[in-house]
Design a protein that fits this description.
Among the domains are: 81 residues, Immunoglobulin-like; 103 residues, Immunoglobulins (Immunoglobulin-like, Sandwich); 79 residues, Immunoglobulins (Immunoglobulin-like); 93 residues, Immunoglobulins (Immunoglobulin-like, Sandwich), CATH 2.60.40; 93 residues, Immunoglobulins (Immunoglobulin-like), CATH 2.60.40; 95 residues, Immunoglobulin-like (Sandwich), CATH 2.60.40.10; 100 residues, Immunoglobulin-like, CATH 2.60.40.10. The chain is mainly beta. The strands form 18 sheets. Strands 48, 49, 51, 52, 54 and 55 form a 6-stranded mixed sheet that branches. The chain has a 5-stranded mixed sheet with strand order 5-2-1-8-15. A 5-stranded mixed sheet has the order 18-25-24-20-21, with no helix packed on it. Helices cover 11% and strands 39% of the residues. Helix 1 runs antiparallel to helix 2.
Length: 1098
């Protein structure tokens, strides 16, 4: 231990850069002596490994080690060169006051039975460790309602000489396994005296669920101490156990109030196993804390319903539960406003903000503090709603105008507050005025009274009066009145109109405007009548006979009549006489005066309106007009609901201008309305509510010169043109083969609905009922249209038409407003006789011409036509090409054609071929018109093909003579198939036989010597099978089918023959049997060849 001490001392000393080299040598010598002494002392059991610590920086506690084999004696410890006395002790440690920061020599004299030994140590503050004393006394308490641990302890700061920083480390453990719940650190400062420190921690598991343990240690960081600094030892464990489990208190925590989003742990402490746990409607798996406790952990709890969220643990025999309430702390009150209505009470209102989710005893509580007076008002709990407005009433303090209010909101989760400073005299919003009363002064002025509760003696009030008249609109008047202690106020209201129904209402504020009060109820009041302010607007019209004049006047408006008009007084006079009429009742707005227009006298006519208050000023007009002969009727179209007129300025017009109008379709006198304009005007827009679109009006412009009127212009006009409402009525006056004449009538003015611009006439060729008239359009190629812009034209002739043809006609009128409906008609033109004759003659001429041309062509091509369509068929009776045996044709007159006469020689092809067939005297082939050459399948080579002239010999009776030479022989005709002559090579006998039998075509009859060899080769049966030309020996074997018939061509019958056996050129039977037993032709079809077979033989 001493070696370690001196090595540290050496390292620290060497680390001091201010140490001189001589001191380093001196220290090295000491270390060497120490090592020698240590070795010598250990051999004798002297102290070694001196170790010093301090708990309070005032006392050093040093100890050493000695060999256990040596009996302990007495130790004397001295500090060399120090005023501290030496210490004798039998223990191996001692305490000395803290030495200064320097090296000190410590001498320890060990006195033993075996002898004495002395050892010296060098001790410095750097070799001393600061180890605070273990904290033994601290207080641990718990708040089970919040699951919070509270720790309180004394830092013993008075034992330390100076200020020092302290770090405290606290560990909390729980459960039976002593699991660490939290590790916390706390920084404090020693101030030279004892201080009490506090620390608290809230457990996530209710304290009732399982025991909690706490221990603490600390570390002092003394800046002026250069030795080692170490943590103190851990304090003894202190534990907190839950209260004894009572009936109905098995689940913790009880009725907890937590913020939304909290994480909570609920535990159940029971003596029986828990089967399930449920939070709200959801089940959770539980955590076992110890033998009697289980818990569930809920994260991010949402807002609870008003009755809270239930937590239930289920055991085999019972249910255990609790309730949790989750919500929000109160929002800072928003829009806090304090004002007064009567300067007696102050009303403070605010917006509660977000609902907390708590109700009843857990709801938000509000307290309003006034700091200057120290008074407060509490707001009772109420059900909360989003952005709900709350208010408190604070009684005003006499003489105080400035108020400083603080509104505090609190609930189980927290508190908030809002502050407002107000001068209450500038925040006056009076109550709603009431009890409005109006009293007459005259027809244009009244007094208006109302009641306003409150004490406003110290301020002025600004009141706004809303005036609504029936016909003059709305008016607002602001009036300042002196505030009163009483509640009755009145104002003077003038500049009103007589006999007018008014509606009044009032609202007030302070002169230093803050807010208006609500409007009072409306007060309706009718002012008294006054004298009419002006005379009626008058006009006059002469009758057509000129014997009387009618005076018209317009009723006065309400603001002109100033009351109810009772009657009108009409009078007229001239220079010679004056005449008055009786009063005209208000319902009648015209009067007729008997005057003669031809009379040169000019009368002045006057009209006066009367009500209960008096008579109006007179309105005057003269009876005579200034003539004007130069008047032309003009046309005009309005804009919108009016018509704009223009005229030139005339300085001679001294009175005014009058525009009169009437509906032109009505009977005389034409008067609907009139309107006057100043004399200096040059135009006017006449608008009239009764103007109707599509209605024609007559307008007359008058000018006034010296109180006499002159007609200036006469105008026909429409406010808006429309399309005609009816179609023109037209008729067909005349028709011809190429034209139609139509005539139409004018459309009545009331149906025209605009100025006529023209007519559209459509016509289309077609059958009756095949064309929709309304569908005719000028854009179609088959529709023709004529635009008639001359509105005076009433007839139209349509030319260039076709005779005896139907036409669809349509006539439409159009105005500036559009095209009106059309009237349609169907007309057929008359027949054109010349065209009919031409139509007949042209086809006849064409037919004759075609017949002549065809005849000429047929005559010139007659030979070709005959050969092509009607070829000659030779008579078999005239043919001598073959001669048959007499026995064949005996007894039958129908077979005389077999007696063949000499014929004209034919061209014969002689083909040289090699064949094993019986040799014929001459290899010949008779070329008939039907056979043009060898078959397509023939392989005969060209060099063996020779064409010669040939004439068949006349067959004599050599056959009979030859037959006499040999008794058993007879003469036969052999039919040789021409095709067999074209075979490229010899065939075996059987092939030749089959070939001969299956051959087809024409075969000449040749005379051959009848020998036994031939008889062996060709028998009579084989002759029947031969398909070539053969005598008609067996009529029943004839096949009458057409050669074109599939039966005759495709048949495999052995008796099938191709063509007549008695013909050279023909391919059909020419001499069919006539008896009934002969077979009938089975050919049911018809062929082009059969058509020519009925031709008689040449």
């Amino acid at each position: 231990m001493e070696a370690y001490f001196y090595s540290r001392l050496l390292s620290k000393t060497g680390g001091n850069k201010r140490m001189s080299s001589s001191k380093f040598q001196w220290l090295s010598s000491i270390i060497f002596l120490y090592l020698v002494n240590q070795a010598h002392g250990q051999s004798r059991g002297v102290p070694h490994d001196l170790n010093c610590i301090t708990h309070n920086l005032k006392v050093w506690d040093c100890s050493w080690e000695a060999l256990p084999t040596i009996n302990h004696g007495t130790y004397e410890i001295c500090v060399i060169n120090s005023s501290y006395p030496c210490i004798r002790t039998e223990k191996t440690h001692f305490e000395i006051p803290a030495l200064t920061f320097a090296d000190h020599e410590i001498k320890i004299n060990s006195i033993h039975v075996s002898g004495n030994s002395v050892i010296k140590f060098i001790l410095n503050e750097r070799n001393v460790s600061l180890v605070p004393a273990t904290l033994q006394d601290f207080n641990l308490t718990a708040d089970f309602s919040t699951s919070t641990l509270y720790l309180k302890w004394n830092d013993n700061g008075s034992v330390f000489p100076s200020h020092s920083s302290v770090i405290w480390e606290i560990i909390v453990q729980y459960k039976e396994k002593m699991e660490v719940a939290t590790v916390a650190t706390l920084n404090t400062t020693l101030i030279g005296k004892d201080s009490v420190h506090h620390w608290n921690w809230t457990s996530d598991i209710p304290l009732e669920c399982t025991p909690h343990y706490v221990k603490i240690r600390y570390y002092i960081d003394e800046l002026h101490f250069f030795g080692q600094k170490e943590w103190s030892e851990w304090s003894p464990l202190r534990n907190i156990s839950g209260p004894p489990v009572k009936e109905n208190y098995e689940v913790f925590p009880r009725d907890k109030v937590v913020p939304v989003g909290s994480n909570m742990t609920f535990c159940c402490v029971v003596g029986e196993p828990v089967l399930s746990a449920q939070f709200g409607k959801e089940s959770y798996s539980f955590i076992r804390l110890d033998r009697r406790s289980v818990a569930i952990k809920i994260n991010n709890i949402t807002v609870s319903p008003s009755s809270g969220t239930n937590v239930v643990f289920t055991t085999k025999s019972n249910l255990y539960g609790t309730v949790v309430f989750a919500g929000y702390p109160p929002d800072i009150p928003r829009k806090l406003n304090c004002e007064t209505r009567d300067l007696k009470e102050i009303t403070c209102s605010w917006n509660a903000g977000r609902p907390t989710g708590f109700f009843g005893p857990r709801g938000t509580n509000y307290i309003l503090y006034e700091r200057f007076s120290g008074r407060n008002v509490t707001y009772g709990r109420a059900e909360e709603h989003m952005n709900a407005i709350h208010q408190l009433i604070f009684q005003m303090i006499t003489g105080q105008e400035i108020y400083n209010f603080t509104l505090e909101a609190n609930n189980p989760l927290g508190r908030s507050e809002a502050v407002i400073l107000v001068n209450i005299t500038q925040r006056v919003c009076p109550h709603t005025p009431s009890k409005l009363i109006a009293k007459d002064i005259n027809s244009t002025a009244i007094f208006l009274y109302w009641h306003l509760s409150g004490n406003f003696a110290n301020i002025n009030l600004l009141c706004e009066i809303e005036i609504n008249a029936t016909y003059s609109g709305q008016e607002l008047r602001n009036i300042t009145v002196r505030g009163l202690e009483t509640s009755s106020y009145h104002v003077y209201m003038d500049k009103l109109m007589p006999y007018t129904m008014y509606t009044f209402r009032v609202r007030c504020s302070s002169e230093n405007f803050w807010k208006w009060s609500k409007w009072s109820n409306e007060k309706h009041y009718l002012t008294t009548e006054g004298i009419p302010s002006k005379g009626p607007d008058i006009w006059r019209e002469w009758r057509a006979d000129g014997k009387s004049v009618i005076i018209y006047w317009k009723p006065l408006s309400l603001n002109e009549a100033n009351g109810k008009i009772l009657s009108y007084n009409v009078s007229y006079w001239s220079e010679e006489k004056t005449r008055y009429l009786s009063e005209i009742p208000d319902s009648q707005h015209k009067a007729e005066i008997k005057l003669d227009k031809n009379d040169d006298s000019d009368y002045i006519i006057s009209v006066v309106a009367k009500n209960s208050a008096g008579s109006s000023p007179p309105s005057k007009i003269t009876s005579m007009e200034i003539p004007n002969e130069d008047i032309k009727v003009e046309q005009i179209v309005g804009i919108g609901n009016g018509i704009l007129f223009h005229w030139n300025y005339d300085p001679n017009m001294t009175c005014d201008y009058v525009i009169k109008w009437c509906n032109s379709t009505r009977s005389e006198p034409c008067l609907t309305d009139w309107k006057k304009f100043p004399a200096n005007s040059t135009g006017a827009l006449v608008e009239y509510d009764n103007f109707r679109s599509g209605t024609r009006y007559n307008f007359f412009l008058y000018g006034c010169k010296n109180q006499k009127y002159q007609l200036l212009r006469s105008i026909l006009g429409y406010t808006e043109e429309l399309a005609p409402s009816v179609a023109p009525n037209f008729t067909v006056e005349d028709t011809s083969s190429d034209s139609i004449l139509v005539k139409w009538e004018d459309i009545p003015v009331e149906d025209l609905r605009g100025f006529l611009r023209g007519y559209l006439f459509y016509f289309e060729k077609g059958e009756k009922g095949t064309s929709k008239i309304q569908g005719l359009e000028s854009g179609r190629s088959d529709v023709k249209v004529k635009n008639i812009t001359d509105i005076t034209q009433k007839t139209l002739r349509i030319v260039d038409l076709q005779g005896k043809t139907g036409y669809h006609l349509l006539l439409q009128a159009y105005t500036g407003g559009g095209i009106g409906p059309g009237k349609s008609m169907y007309v057929v033109t008359k027949e054109n006789s010349e065209g009919l004759i031409i139509a007949i003659l042209i086809p006849v001429a064409v037919a004759i011409f075609v017949g002549v041309v065809t005849s000429i062509l047929c005559y010139r091509k007659r030979e070709w036509i005959k050969e092509t369509f009607y070829p000659d068929i030779p008579n078999p009776e005239n043919s001598k090409a073959l001669q048959f045996h007499k026995s064949i044709c005996e007894g039958s007159s129908t077979l005389k054609t077999l007696e063949m006469n000499p014929c004209t020689p034919n061209n014969v092809e002689v083909v040289e071929t090699r064949s094993v067939a019986p040799k014929i005297e001459e290899d010949t082939e008779i070329k008939s018109p039907v056979t043009d050459g060898p078959e397509e399948g023939s392989d005969a080579e060209p060099e063996n093909h020779v064409v010669v002239s040939y004439c068949p010999p006349i067959i004599e009776e050599e056959i009979a003579n030859a037959g006499g030479e040999e008794a058993g022989s007879s003469s036969q005709v052999i039919y040789i198939d021409i095709q067999s002559m074209y075979q490229p090579q010899a065939k075996p006998e059987e092939e030749l036989e089959n070939h001969l039998v299956g051959g087809a075509g024409y075969k000449p009859q040749m005379h051959l010597p009848v020998t036994s060899t031939i008889e062996n080769i060709i028998t009579a049966d084989d002759l029947e099978k031969t398909a070539g030309y053969r005598p008609q020996t067996n009529v029943n074997a004839w096949n009458l089918d057409s050669p074109d018939s599939p039966r005759s061509i495709d048949s495999n019958s052995e008796i099938a023959s191709f063509g007549s056996p008695c013909s050279i050129n023909s391919r059909q039977f020419l001499i069919p049997p006539k008896d009934e037993e002969s077979p009938k032709s089975s050919n049911g079809g018809w062929s082009f060849t059969n058509f020519f077979q009925n031709k008689p033989n040449d």
